[in-house]
Amino acid sequence: MKNFQVAIIGGGVIGSAIAWELSKYKVDVVVFEMESDVASGASKANSGVIHSGINSATGSLKARFCVEGNSMFQTLADELGFQLKWVGKWVIAKNQHEIKELQRLQKVGNANNVPYLEITDESEVEKKEPNVSCYKALWVPTAGIIPPYEFTIALAENAAENNVKFILETKVIGLKKQRNNFEILIDKGNFQAQIVVMQLVLIVEK
């Protein structure tokens, strides 16, 4: 029975990202994925938006990780070779009454350390988006977009190059807690791991 230090169940973007991070260290890691490739579940249908953090509650972990994660993506894209476009985002106010919401978002964004936020008038918007009609707009340049499938593949491939083992087309059907580890029951045999990380979103069977 093969023994790993860490077993990750689920080869989506989160599971692959954890595997990639652990591949930097001397840790024996395996990823079990029931489909024929990683990113075959919820990850492939993700919008791929790199959020800026302008609407996350100040002081929350979501705000902290959103802004920190946003700042990491250019380095990740350069290192792993996936597409990344900093397209930015306009938040539109159609009339004077809606300006308060732009100001609120800008205030929250500033408190969360989101850089380069600017409220502009329609003439500035028209320079970049001539078909948009508005009264004012909040420009958020740190909003971006990536292909989620390509990103997940890049994480998984790099992790595999660094000796993480990916076992595809394999369904985990049970776990048994033992004294010092877990026995992982799969449809092709059993494995053992000291730590099990479950990253399942859509499919969790009893």
Automatic annotation (TrEMBL):
Which Pfam families does its entry note?
A: DAO (PF01266)
Q: Which organism is it from?
A: marine sediment metagenome
Q: Under which name does UniProt file this protein?
A: FAD dependent oxidoreductase domain-containing protein
What region holds the FAD dependent oxidoreductase domain?
6-190
Chain coiled-coil ranges: none
The record lists the lineage as: unclassified sequences, metagenomes, ecological metagenomes
